[in-house]
Write a structure and sequence with these properties.
By secondary structure, the chain is mainly α. The protein contains 6 helices and no strands. Helix 1 runs antiparallel to helix 3 (53-72) and helix 3 runs antiparallel to helix 4 (78-98). The model has no long low-confidence stretch (mean pLDDT 93).
Length: 133
Amino acid sequence: MPKLRLHQLPLRISSGAFLVNSGMSKLKADEQTAQSLHQFATGTYPMFGSMEPSKFVRLLAMGEVGLGGALLLPMVSSRIAGLGLMAFAGGLLGLYLKTPGMRQEGSLKPTKEGTAIAKDVWLFAMGMTLLTD
């Protein structure tokens, strides 16, 4: 079994619980919420455009729950969990960087609307820490 270090627990528990909660709430998303999330994502990732919004949100929710669960399970190595967290957060940061109105003109600083996504840089940093520890 991979060795889980005590100092990794705060990163794994906080990010894992956050993702499980986020995914569980998306599993209950109504059609309007599904359409909104789908439209937002396809602006940056057009490969999801042909997917039905409800199917897209269900897939996203299952991914969040799965990744969150992997972070919470001690038998999943921190490197694997960190790599998964970096990949997921990288996708979210792609939304931040490529969606108009998320950043101040000519800057990486978020607008009021972009702050909710800009904070995902912390998830990316948590993943990097787990991967390189």
